[in-house]
């Protein structure tokens, strides 16, 4: 019998499930925020989907999350806002109103949407 390479035959499959966790927070401005200013909303100033008070803004999962900000129902550009997770006094949303733009009027709704993904993978190896 001639010499031959002996090796294992291995087959593998991976099944990944990605489950999003979408959380929305609501705020209604109490004063006008002029162009060139920053609207800062503390975690405790938001209320949840069910109307309950919010005490903490969730962490953003590294490489598996994002947040959106809507003012008056319009999605805003990402570079205008800064999201800081955490409890009252730490967690906040800061939104920079462009200097050459229009002010945010008193009574304007602000919606913060936080989406975290929780991927889970199952690997099956057959030998």
Automatic annotation (TrEMBL):
Domain DUF4183: residue ranges: 36-114
Superkingdom of source: Bacteria
Family annotation (InterPro entries): DUF4183 (IPR025237)
Listed name of the protein: DUF4183 domain-containing protein
Organism for this UniProt entry: Pullulanibacillus camelliae
Lineage: Bacteria, Bacillati, Bacillota, Bacilli, Bacillales
